[in-house]
Amino acid sequence: MEDFSHINAANKAKMVDVGGKVSSKRKATASAIVALGPELFEQLIHEQGVHELKMPKGPVFQTAIIAGIQGVKQTPFLIPMCHPLQISGVEILIQPRQEGQIEILCTVSLEGKTGVEMEALMGANIAALTVYDMCKAVNPHIEIKELKLISKQGGKNDFSL
């Protein structure tokens, strides 16, 4: 089973040893598309260059950003083969799109021996789930439509959609 990095010679799960790898700057960005529906989308507020959606539970996007950052930090506790990382930065942007949708972008960076793709995906996902949670009383039909990695830099290969 040498072809699989997370399986040992006895065909059992293992965490990859990154101890011999060279540290490098790494960055990944993931996105999630959330379809709010027209009623919620019309309630978006644009103040001082920031979009926000205010619900009885509070400011939706600011809460989602904080939740997404927490999601990034919790990734190794939820995804078994992810290493605990010294994250150097997380930025989550939430912006309106056409047809009652928002896009959540989560960018994670560090200098280390392994990438941050899973952390970026987790941050975007948790932010999207938080938007759903805070708005479901107004529209229980909100859809989290897409979650995908859109770029990665550092390590063996760079990637960009």
Would you mind describing this structure in some detail?
- The protein is of the alpha+beta class and 161 residues long.
- The chain has one domain: Alpha-Beta Plaits (2-Layer Sandwich), CATH 3.30.70.640.
- The protein has a five-stranded antiparallel β-sheet, covered by helices on one side.
- A hairpin with a 5-residue loop joins strand 8 and strand 9.
- The protein is elongated and about 55 Å long.
Topology:
Layout (H helix, E strand, L loop, with lengths): L23 E12 L2 H4 L3 E3 L2 E3 L1 E2 L2 E2 H19 L10 E8 L4 E12 L4 H19 L7 E11 L5 E2 L1
Antiparallel strand pairs: 1-7, 1-8, 2-3, 4-5, 6-7, 8-9
Helix pairs in contact: 2-3
Question: What distinguishing features does this structure have?
Answer:
alpha+beta; Alpha-Beta Plaits; five-stranded antiparallel β-sheet; 34% strand; elongated
How do you describe this structure in short?
This protein is of the alpha+beta class and 161 residues long.
Tally of DSSP helical segments = 3
Considering the protein shown, what is the CATH homologous superfamily?
Molybdopterin cofactor biosynthesis C (MoaC) domain
**Into which percent range does the helicity of residues fall?**
25-40%
Q: How are the strands of the biggest sheet laid out side by side?
A: 6-7-1-8-9
Radius of gyration: 18 Å
CATH fold call: Alpha-Beta Plaits
What structural category do the secondary elements indicate?
Answer: alpha+beta
Number of strands: 9
Largest sheet: 5 strands, antiparallel
Mean pLDDT, all residues: 91
